[in-house]
Amino acid sequence: MVYKTNQEHSMAANSPEKLIIFDTTLRDGEQSPGASMTKDEKIRIAKQLERMKVDVIEAGFAAASPGDFEAIKAIAGIIKDSTVCSLSRANDKDIARAAEALQPAERKRIHTFLATSPLHMEKKLRMTPDQVFEQAKLAVRYARKFTDDVEFSPEDGSRSDMDFLCRVLEAVIAEGATTINFADTVGYGVPELYGHMLKTLRERIPNSDKAIWSVHCHNDLGMAVANSLAGVMIGGARQVECTINGLGERAGNTALEEIVMAVRTRRDYFNLDIGIDTTQIVPASKLVSQITGFAVQPNKSVVGANAFAHASGIHQDGVLKARDTYEIMRAEDVGWSANKIVLGKLSGRNAFKQRLEELGIALESETEVNAAFARFKELADRKSEIFDEDIIALVSDEQQSHDKEFYRFVSLSQHSETGEKPSAKVVFSIDDKESSCEGEGNGPVDAIVNAIETKVASGAELLLFSVNAITTGTQSQGEVTMRLSKAGRIVNGVGADLDIVVASAKAYLSALNKLHSKSEKLNPQL
Ligand code: KIV
Ligand code: ZN
User: Fold this and answer.
1) Residue 155 Cα: closest atom of ligand 1
2) Mean of pLDDT values over 333-361
3) Reported pTM
4) Whose CA is nearest to atom 2 of ligand 1?
5) Would you state the pLDDT for residue 400?
6) Most exposed: 33, 61, 397, 444, by fewest CB within 10 Å?
7) Which has the closest alpha carbon to 24: 96, 88, 94, 87?
8) What is d(CA 139, CA 134) in angstroms, rounded to the nearest whole number?
9) Name one GO molecular function term (predicted).
């Protein structure tokens, strides 16, 4: 895909310009404490982003860890329709590592960044403005040796001095940066001011029309989406950096679903083209939430469970008479499907396969389809009504078990009685060797965790335990998330089952697997 610079766009008379959607769920999203993902999980999300027709996928930060490097490389080899990008600090070693990871990509972008605010330069980088100016130029010059798609971000841009920003950005554009990403790193921006800063930069920098301008906002004051849209409308940005569900460090990043639906629903105002297949938004949201264990709040715009629910009689009556009385978007346009029974015990393999296709779930091989179908049959034996959400959860579980699982759940029995201390016996395998353990606790979940710990002795601290019903009714499967912390690392484990105690054991073991396998990462903000 060839992106037009702002200059080329303005030559294309009044036709709507394209707004580039740059997704950073796998990089900035993953920086959220507890949101770390395995390589396979990242690949699943990247495929969903491609299905959704995201223009650029920031797949990670190659120099951060061997795990990040491998995930970017794998994604670069798989994704064909979106540009794959790696973040990199502004030094040769990081840039070469990013280029190496991106080598298999059909379209690749190196995104290099360096802080430009007085505070970051003096206190964090301990560099003078002149040193920062030189290093930024050298970084872009070096990145251009590997690809002609190079993005530069002045980190903490919104708290930087305008004269200095103009000097640095003019220089990096002259070195060949094709995208300039004006970062509101700490979410300090206010829409009007942020938009005008961007406008001023574009007006003052003589070669500004040689680059596409981008916005990257954090949500510390709850204004990330508003700031991004002000950057687009006032500042003339034609790329928005965002994440699914607004996942990201601290209060998160700009939410992709909100940007896309705002620009699409209010096309009369924004007059911009967006290439996203919006029907893939809810599946993407559910996938990211399921993998990271970060629940989506019910009243969250677009992807929250209540986003299209009308409780008041007046609203229900209005919607029944004419939908647009109270609905500005259609639930099906963003991928909500009614909670309907889709399959049952008697459904065959073909019906199951067809439903997977309709849900946009692409399993790699017939062996994978067979394994998922076997799980489906097992579930259908225990649960009479199978919903789309059940299928998504079981496929997810199936794909999760592809990562080599050091700890693997086998079975459990658990006893609770009023007035007695709950006890549990858990059977699970450790590196393929089956092992059985027993424990007691204050509740059934505490008992299974204590039982597992008698064998594993992980020493990890449980930060979060949450149970979520996948569908409605008491027949629903429970999806459990357990967040563990150990030696500064935070991981999430997710498990689903009709029995929430079993789901808890699976979630705990899944978190232990992540603690077992992950290598340390660098924080890109350092
Ligand atoms: O918030 C930020 O400044 C970033 C940069 C690396 C673009 O994420
Ligand atoms: Zn960021």
Assistant:
1) 3
2) 79
3) 0.87
4) 185
5) 66
6) 33
7) 87
8) 9
9) acetyl-CoA C-acetyltransferase activity
